[in-house]
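Researcher: Sequence recovery benchmark, item below. Answer with residues only.
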């Protein structure tokens, strides 16, 4: 887990650095509590999600970016245009599969994202179980 200070700072939801967009990716679903699923932005590991955690990253603004999460049979992706100076909120959720649980992603409103993320703790970035 990230430090309490880093987590609290991220939950201030400040404007991202110049020419950047902020991305909050979080998981708050009850289903699949024991499962951990890798998350990637543009093929680079963000981290391995767990229940009740979030990640924060900055990406180049004014560009499309691809967010991926591993699932039962293949990765599930979300491709979005990220405007400079804005924060975006992506919720990862677990869905039960035939043999194991899978994961998917959805964009949520900034209002809902802030409410959800404020109840979670920030995870350390950069640790994925698989390389992309």
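Model:
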């Amino acid at each position: 887990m990230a430090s309490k200070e880093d987590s609290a700072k991220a939950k201030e939801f400040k404007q991202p650095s110049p020419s950047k967009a902020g991305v909050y990716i979080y998981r708050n679903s009850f289903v699949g509590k024991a499962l951990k699923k890798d998350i990637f932005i543009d093929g680079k590991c963000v981290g391995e999600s767990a229940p009740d955690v979030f990640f924060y990253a900055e990406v180049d603004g004014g560009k499309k970016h691809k967010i991926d999460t591993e699932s039962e049979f293949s990765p599930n992706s979300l491709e979005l245009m990220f405007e400079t100076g804005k924060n975006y909120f992506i919720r990862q959720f677990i869905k039960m599969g035939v043999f194991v649980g899978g994961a998917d992603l959805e964009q949520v409103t900034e209002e809902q994202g802030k409410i959800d993320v404020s109840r979670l703790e920030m995870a350390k970035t950069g640790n994925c179980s698989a390389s992309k």
